[in-house]
Each structure stands twice: as structure tokens, then as C-alpha cells.
Amino acid sequence: MNVKLNHILVVEDNENDLELTLDALNSRNLANDIAVARDGAEALDYIFSRGKWADRNTGNPAVILLDLKLPKISGLEVLKQLRDNEATKLVPVVILTSSNEEKDIIEGYRLGTNAYVVKPVVFSDFMNAVELLGTFWALINEPPARE
Fold first, then answer.
1. Is 134 a residue whose pLDDT tops 90?
2. How many CB atoms sit inside 10 A of residue 96's CB?
3. 3-state DSSP assignment of residue 10
């Protein structure tokens, strides 16, 4: 199987936020491939190569940009399942959410997020934040060796 070395998974249910995120990532050509999951269940299907993603190329994403307030399965539960699995426990996860609630921040870090970013409401600030996140996690960060 062909392994994508530089792909990003964006887990976002809000159409406007998703469009802005994809525009920001694509404007910098930050990944060979950007996959999108619209809810927590679809994110887990992608990560664990099941359901409609059963035939996807293997390999973990360089980073997962994860919203918290998702349909079906919450972002925090997605993060928990990632960290509980030996094959995915080291995948970088950035929570990118509109929630700045202290309980969400604490729980996100308790479950093992690598970063917690509150989505800026100003368009240009949002674009800059996503570009910086993508640049760091997809290009600058040195992940552990793939097994």
C-alpha cells in the first residue's frame, strides 16, 4: 500500500469554519492530502480505516485538527479513543474549537491534546491561526518514527 507521508485530517462540522480551514491549509500547500470528517464517528472511521474509509491509504495523519462540538461523537471522545489506541496514541492532535470553556481546555489536555486553540472570530486572524498551525504541525514538527 502507498503511505501518505504528509496528510492532515480536519474534523469540523461547521461549513464556514471548514471552508476557511481548508482555504488556509491549501493556500500554503501544507499537505499532500487533506481529509475531512464532518462528525466524530466519521473521524474515528477515518483514523481506524473502517466504513467508507476502509480502503484509504494507510498511515496516520501528520496532525489532526479537531473540533470539540461535533455530532454523533464529541471531539473529546475522539481524542480519548485516539490516545487509548497503541497505533494512534502519538498522533499530534490540535483542538481547534470555538469553546474557551475552562472545563473543555482542562479535559482536552488531560486526554492528551498537543495544543488547544480557540478559533478567532475575525476572518484574517482565523486564516493566520490555521496557516501557523498547519505550518508547524505538517512541516516543522518532527514526529516519532512511523512503525
1. no
2. 25
3. strand
- 128 domain-assigned: yes
- 107-129 in b/e form (b: 16+ CB < 10 A) is bbeebebbbbeebeeeeeebbeb
Q: Order of strands across the sheet with 7-11?
A: 33-37, 7-11, 63-66, 93-97, 115-118
Which SS3 state, helix, strand or coil, does residue 133 take? helix
Q: Which grid cell sits at 98? A: 470555538
Number of domains in the chain: 1
Residue 144 lies in a domain: no
Residue 16's identity, in one-letter code, is N
With cell 480502503, the residue in question is 55
* DSSP per-residue string spanning 124-146: HHHHHHHHHHHIIIIII--PPPP
pTM of the model: 0.87
- Whose cell is 492530502? That residue is 33
- Residue 127 maps to which CATH number? 3.40.50.2300
Whether residue 146 is contained in a domain is answered as no
- Per-residue confidence band for 139, with pLDDT thresholds at 50, 70 and 90: low
Domain that holds residue 26: 7-139
